[in-house]
């Protein structure tokens, strides 16, 4: 993220609770988008109700964010994040 702060942005303390639940990085392919930025973008969409395509440019590309949201949703990871 480009140093933007929204009401939905995680604090460092909140991120410390969620970070251990994140999937491990793959050992091949492109470097991945920082997961904290992706998670903050998901929180922004959920809270604001905006369409994925209208994510502010401060966040990673909307397709990246949606792809992670979809994957984490199917894996049941969002429930873990919510519980944390």
Folded structure, characterized:
The chain has 84 residues and is mainly α. The protein is built from 4 helices and no strands. The two termini are 23 Å apart.
Descriptive tags:
4 helices, mainly alpha, 84 residues
Q: Count of helices?
A: 4
What structural category arises from helix and sheet content?
mainly alpha
Question: How many strand units?
Answer: 0
Helical fraction: 40-55%
Overall 3D shape: globular
Order of helices and strands: HHHH
Strand residue percentage: under 5%
Sheet having the most strands: none
Spans of at least 5 consecutive residues with low confidence: none
Distance between the termini: 23 Å
Entry summary:
The mean pLDDT is 91. The protein is built from four helices and no strands.
How is this fold's topology laid out?
Elements: H1 12-18, H2 35-48, H3 62-75, H4 77-83
